[in-house]
Amino acid sequence: MKIVINNQEFDYNIGCGLLKLKYGDTPFKGLEDIWDDIKPLTFKEIARNVTNVEARRVAIACLGTERLVNEVKPKHIKSETIAKKTMWITQSGELVERCFDDTYSLYRVSADDLFGKDSHQGDSYYVSCKDTSTDREYILWVDLRGVASTKSDRLGWSMGQRDMEKNVSPIDCVAWTIQTDIAEGDISYIIRQGDCILVRPKDGQKTPRLPFGQFRHLTGHEYRNLLIAES
Questions:
Q1: What is the rounded distance in angstroms from the CA atom of residue 192 to the CA atom of residue 113?
Q2: Structure confidence at residue 75 (pLDDT)
Q3: pLDDT score recorded for residue 141
Q4: What is the pTM of this model?
Q5: Full residue range of the structural domain in which residue 202 is found
Q6: Does 174 lie in the same domain as 120?
Q7: Residues 123, 41 share a domain
Q8: Measured between alpha carbons, how far is 42 from 25 in angstroms, rounded to an integer?
């Protein structure tokens, strides 16, 4: 038997553990008799048993940011704040300009805390940030070596862990989570609405896009200077 949560299919026992994480009371009929006996999953159990990327995203959403942070004991590396200005539509339909400071923080999680002491994985990294409209906190997992390589080209692949932490900024990490097929230098502006990203190429570019099927990560410089609106 399978349980479907947010269009993702889970084995029955794992699905029950996720539902216990997400809901305080039984979410639907059929679980009343066993609800009190169901144990909510831990992050380590999710990491070990949920291998599909989209299914893991749903599972971690059930866990929630606060419980995740409490479990994995992250170490704060650095924070970065950038001033932003964007246009908002009020409840009355009026278009107004909104200025705000947006803070991003980079954290390291040890492999032992994340996957267990028997794991052969390396340390992991995430960036925390707040939703600009709801003020809820979100985390974005990043490949720090990939971020370093995007920022420093081939040099990033030869950096040690501490050098990467020193040279990579939280904004570099956030930018790295966005991919585009528009070549660097050919972007006119970027608009972000939640997870939806609009990357506009410059007018008059003969070949503004990368070869078919190729994509690249945005740089921190592009994110800082070309993001003109966000909601």
A1: 33
A2: 94
A3: 87
A4: 0.77
A5: 64-230
A6: yes
A7: no
A8: 18
Angle value at C-alpha 215, between 210 and 219, nearest 5 degrees: 100
- How many angstroms separate the CA atoms of 11 and 29, rounded? 18
Residues 130, 59 share a domain:
no
Rounded distance between C-alpha atoms, residue 78 and residue 80, angstroms:
7
**Residues 110 and 169 placed together within one structural domain of the fold:** yes
Number of structural domains the chain divides into: 2
Instruction: Give burial (CB, 10 Å; 0-12/13-18/19+) of 163.
Output: middle
Mean pLDDT by 10 residues, the chain (231 residues): 90 92 82 88 87 84 87 92 78 81 91 72 87 74 92 78 93 94 92 85 72 90 88 68
* E-only strand ranges, the chain: 2-5, 8-11, 75-89, 95-109, 124-130, 137-142, 179-180, 187-193, 196-201, 216-217, 227-230
Same domain membership, residue 178 and residue 72: yes
Cβ atoms 81, 28 nearer than 8 A: no
What is the per-residue pLDDT for 147? 94
Give the residue carrying structure tokens 């805390």: 113
Which are the contacts of 211, defined by CB distance < 8 A and separation ≥ 6? none
Return the amino acid letter for 81. Answer: T
User: Of 48, 63, 78, which closes a domain?
Assistant: 63
CA distance 231 to 226: 15
The pair phi, psi for residue 19, each rounded to 5°, is -60, -35
Do 116 and 5 fall within a single domain?
A: no
Q: Assess whether 116 and 215 both reside in one domain.
A: yes
Task: Calculate the CA 50 to chain-centre distance.
Answer: 17
